[in-house]
Amino acid sequence: MGSMSLMHWLIVGVLVILLFGGSRFSNMMGDVAKGIKQFKKGMAEDDDDKPAPTRIEGKPTPTPDASFQTEAERTREER
């Protein structure tokens, strides 16, 4: 009782088309599609405008000590 059946939705669709007319309805959908395309284009342009991140130079990373062994190296030597 609370939900609408397929027949109800068909009647609502026919009434909307009668009220707005076929060409007016298709024009509205075309405008919605253009708006979505413009939004996507604007979002893509925003990504292009951002400068590339620059690398911050700091202290060089220390090289590991020759006596230091990783877990994988120890496991390989034991076999």
From TrEMBL:
- A Gene Ontology CC term for this entry? TAT protein transport complex
Membrane topology note: Single-pass membrane protein
- What biological process terms from GO does the record include? protein transport by the Tat complex
Which Pfam families does the record cross-reference, listed alphabetically?
TatA_B_E
Q: Give the residue ranges for region: Disordered.
A: 42-79
Spell out the subcellular localization from the entry.
Cell membrane
Keyword set for this entry?
A: Cell inner membrane, Cell membrane, Membrane, Protein transport, Translocation, Transmembrane, Transmembrane helix, Transport
Q: Which InterPro entries match?
A: TatA/B/E, TatA/E
Question: What are this entry's molecular-function GO terms?
Answer: protein transmembrane transporter activity
Positions of transmembrane segments: 6-25
Give the domain of life: Bacteria
Question: PANTHER family attached here?
Answer: SEC-INDEPENDENT PROTEIN TRANSLOCASE PROTEIN TATA
Spell out the subunit comment.
The Tat system comprises two distinct complexes: a TatABC complex, containing multiple copies of TatA, TatB and TatC subunits, and a separate TatA complex, containing only TatA subunits. Substrates initially bind to the TatABC complex, which probably triggers association of the separate TatA complex to form the active translocon.
Family membership: Belongs to the TatA/E family.
Q: What does this protein do?
A: Part of the twin-arginine translocation (Tat) system that transports large folded proteins containing a characteristic twin-arginine motif in their signal peptide across membranes. TatA could form the protein-conducting channel of the Tat system.
Designated name of the protein: Sec-independent protein translocase protein TatA
Lineage, opening ranks: Bacteria, Pseudomonadati, Pseudomonadota, Alphaproteobacteria, Sphingomonadales
